[in-house]
Structures are given as structure tokens and as C-alpha cells.
Amino acid sequence: MQAIARVNRTCNEPKKYAGYIVDYYGIVENLDKALQIYAGEVVPQHIWTRIETELPKLEAVLQQLFDLLPHHQDILRAPQAYLRDAELYLDPSERLDVVDEFLQLLNNFNRLIDIILPHPKGAAYKPYLYVFNELKAYLKNKLPDPGYQEKLNQRETAMLQYLVDEYLEADEVRSLLGREISILNVDDFERLKKIKSLDSRALVMKNQLKHVTKTGKKKDPGFFAEIEKALKELLQAEKEKRIEQIVFLQQLEELTQKIHQKDQEAQSHGFSGPAQVATYHYLKTQFSDTQLGKNQAQLWATKIFTDTDIADTLASEIWKQKTDVYKPLEKKIRSILRGVSNWSPSVAKGHAATILETLKNN
């Protein structure tokens, strides 16, 4: 037993997560006899019993995955086309229950194939392992909520994770999947632009834009509401095939560039910090005339942030924890808005509440 345990011991360099024991000397025969004495009735066939019983279960789960996902494409002959169909189908905004079912089935599939590999009978299932786990990696950009990120980041066993990571790293697009990449990061954005495949570049970029706009709306609702609207119109045009792929990609890049440069205009008017920039953006969106919006937003935001009471409150590092300051702060903002606009009290109150939430979120 000691000899076999030492032979099959894993090591870190080079990476080795599993292997075969080659019994040149007949040790296993003696081991079987020892197990019969000390571990009850054990016969050599028991070594593979679990694999034989788990294979039908693996086949059943694989069929469930096939039944769940679109099957217009052949997963083995056209894996990328199959993935594109599946990625579009697993839209959380339309089929969150299906996403949940997919993640549950994939968890079972991974558990079963981990039992069977590296036995040769498991080799035929590796292509499915790669495709389904690549789909799981795509979902990281579609499901930014913490609850789902916990499911999606759940690590498999060392051997299975090594196989999946090795597969993902083998391709320029797949190597970006499942990582903490962001189009807000200039280096990540440049890496995305170097991807040769237009389809793949657009796929990663549009999912990143969806995530950025969803999370950005809490901190800067004025700016990201406009980005979200433009993105929805662009995605609808792509879905209805009213736009060529190269033009679609160019417009995705333009939206991304706008996000990169979102603070420049506000900063040129003297506003600094996320809270001031976001307030300027929000006030600007209240005007249909762009130039008028810029001028009025600059004037109104300046009045808000140069007000002594507001400035003193925001200067405190713990003002957000002091909930008793919320109502006086909102009332002061509402008073300023009433003084510079022709808004009714109820309209001014609604805008003041949104600005207060923006300040609290930055």
C-alpha cells in the first residue's frame, strides 16, 4: 500500500492531478489479498464498479443538457456555433429559471465526469465538458449578481479545473472568459480589440457593456441610462439583423469609448469626484437641448455643491452613516432646484431624492 501511495502522489511542478498506477511487479495482487483480510470482501472487479454504474448517470445528465439547450447546431462538429445559440438562449432577463437549471445540470455533469476521468471511457465526454464549461464562463459576464457569481466561481476538483482552464487558455477569446476583465480597464479593452474574430469580440464586449451599464446606473444614473438606451437599440438591431457585424462592433467600441471619457466634460466645468460628476450628468439629462443642458447643469450643480450647508455635510467622512442628515440634505437640494427651475414642488422633490441617492452611492 505504501509503495502504491508513493507512486501515485501528486506534485505541483509540472502540474499533475491524476495518473495511472502501472503494476510491473504484481503488487496489486497482494494488495487485493490484504484488502480482503482487513477491509472485508473485495474483489479486483470492484475497482471499476463505480465507473460502470456512473456512466449511465452521466449519459442521462448529458441528454438532459441537450434537451434543455437549443440543438440547431452540432455540438461536436460546430461547437462555436452551438455556443452562440446557447449563449443567446440563456438570457437571464428572459429565462433565469433555465439558467438555474443549466447550472444545476452542469454541476451534476462535472461531478460525474470527474469520477470517470482519467479512465479511457471518459475521453469521449471531454468535448462536452469543454463546451458546457465554456458556456458557464460566458455566464460570468451575464450574471454579475453576487449570488450567481458564487455559483459560477465554485471551483471543481483540481484535475477537472486543470482540464477546463487548459482548454480556456488555449484560445484568445476563451482566455478572457471567466476572468475579472472590464472594458473600463484600458488594458483589457485593448486586449479585446486585438481579438481577430469579429463575432467573438462583439460577444465579449456586448456582455461587458450590459454588466457595466447595469452596475453603473446606481452610481451615475443620468449617464448610464443614456448608454443603456443606446445599447438596447443597438442589440435589437443586431437581433433583427438590421446592422452589419463590423458596424455593430464599431458602435459597441464607440459606446465603450464614451464610458472611458464620461468624466471629461464634467471635469472641464470644474466638477471633481464621482458624486459631483454624476450629479452634473443627471441634471444635464433633464434637458432635450444638449447645449442648454450643459449650461444649466453646470449652473445648477455648482449651486448645489457650493451651498455651505451641503458642502459641510458632504465634507464629513461618515455622513452616509448618519441617516438623520438625509432629510435636511434632500430638503436643501429641493429648495435649490426650486429656485433655479420652474419645476413644481413634487417634481423638484423627485429630482432631489434621485440626487441624494446618487450622492449616497458614490
Structural class: mainly alpha
Largest sheet: none
Domain count: 4
* Helix and strand element order: HHHHHHHHHHHHHHHHHH
Q: Name the overall outline.
A: elongated
Strand content: under 5%
What is the radius of gyration computed over CA atoms, rounded to a whole number of angstroms? 29 Å
Strand count: 0
Mean pLDDT: 79
- Share of helix, binned: 55-70%
Question: What are the low-pLDDT stretches, counting only 5+ consecutive residues below 50?
Answer: 172-181
Properties at a glance:
single chain, 69% helix, mainly alpha, 4 domains
Secondary structure elements and pairings:
Elements: H1 2-7, H2 27-38, H3 46-68, H4 79-89, H5 92-116, H6 126-142, H7 146-152, H8 158-169, H9 186-193, H10 198-219, H11 221-239, H12 245-260, H13 264-268, H14 273-284, H15 290-306, H16 308-315, H17 326-340, H18 345-360
Helix pairs in contact: 3-5, 4-6, 5-6, 6-8, 10-11, 10-12, 11-12, 14-15, 14-18, 17-18
Describe what you observe in this structure.
There is one protein chain. This protein is 69% helix and 0% strand. It is mainly alpha-helical and 362 residues long. The chain has four domains: 1-44, no CATH class; 48-176; 184-262, no CATH class; 265-362, no CATH class. Helix 5 (92-116) runs antiparallel to helix 6 (126-142) and helix 11 packs antiparallel against helix 12. The longest helix is centred in the N-terminal third of the chain and has 25 residues, at 92-116. The radius of gyration is 29 Å and the shape is elongated. Residues 172-181 have low confidence and may be disordered.
